[in-house]
Design goal:
It contains 11 helices and no strands. The chain is an all-alpha fold. It has a single domain, classed as Heme oxygenase-like (Heme Oxygenase, Chain A), CATH 1.20.910.10. The longest helix has 28 residues. The chain binds 4-amino-5-hydroxymethyl-2-methylpyrimidine. 4-amino-5-hydroxymethyl-2-methylpyrimidine binds next to helix 4, helix 8 and helix 11. The site of 4-amino-5-hydroxymethyl-2-methylpyrimidine (HMH) has 8 residues, from helix 4, helix 8 and helix 11. InterPro entries: Haem_Oase-like_multi-hlx, TenA_E, Thiaminase-2/PQQC, Thiaminase_II, Thiamine_Salvage_TenA.
């Protein structure tokens, strides 16, 4: 039983993608993403998204660094420490390029705390990264990569160009990101292949929860959500 399917006939990634197709479809058809593709998304909603994403990416980087520390081989250590570094590089590009072009002043970012959805998602990732075995940590991190890659390509295919959000679309539709995503899928499937049925079930739960939190993150930006009290 050393194939990538754990004897079940389907890779973890294929099974998880299929099981969560309704969540992906809900994300794909959100007004936020439809208007982003059309170039008509109001700037205040994109600004909310960017500020929250800058908070998110630092926490995502920390969770990736914990995954790196838990890796069961040197390849995984390199893969996830590199991914942690890239998350911080992307966060810095939000500050230097996107914040500037959309008029987010440093003081506005500094004065904006995490939204409830961002807090929920990042707490879930960091909590899972600390508490769960490597395979479950990878399953929690996979939707962050995979959903963005598929949404990026989907938006690119229907995008009106030029579009104020071209740079965002190109980041996630670009080949560099997709190559990294294929590698994370492969590593997650390898970890699933040797996981016990119990761990594999927890992988599915973690994958599902992260997918739902992706939807909630976009929904929160759409609603310009903040803390109710
Ligand atoms: C919320 C969120 N999920 C995933 C990504 C891509 O890694 C991102 N930038 N933001």
């Amino acid at each position: 039983m050393n194939d990538a399917t754990n004897g079940s006939g389907a890779t973890f990634s294929a099974a998880a993608w299929q099981a969560n197709l309704p969540v992906f479809e809900a994300i794909r058809t959100m007004a936020f993403n439809e208007q982003l593709a059309q170039g008509t998304l109001p700037a205040d909603r994109f600004k909310h998204y960017m500020i929250q994403d800058a908070h998110y990416l630092i926490a995502f980087g920390r969770a990736l660094a914990i995954a790196a520390a838990k890796a069961d081989d040197a390849d995984g250590l390199v893969q996830f420490s590199e991914a942690a570094k890239v998350a911080v590089i992307v966060e810095r590009s939000l500050h230097t390029d996107f914040f500037r072009s959309f008029g987010v002043a440093p003081a506005e970012f500094d004065g904006t705390e995490m939204s409830p959805a961002c807090h929920h998602y990042t707490s879930f990732l960091i909590g899972t990264a600390h508490a769960e075995p490597y395979a479950v940590v990878l399953a929690a991190l996979l939707p962050c990569f995979w959903i963005y890659a598929e949404i990026g390509r989907d938006i690119l295919a229907r995008a009106v160009r030029p579009n104020p959000y071209d740079a965002w679309i190109d980041t996630y539709a670009g080949e560099d990101f997709h190559e990294a995503v294929r590698a994370v899928i492969a590593t997650t499937d390898r970890a699933a292949a040797t996981a016990s049925p119990q761990v594999r079930a927890r992988m599915h739960e973690a994958y599902k929860r992260a997918s739902q939190l992706e939807w909630m993150f976009w929904d929160s930006a759409w609603r310009l959500a903040s803390w109710p009290v």
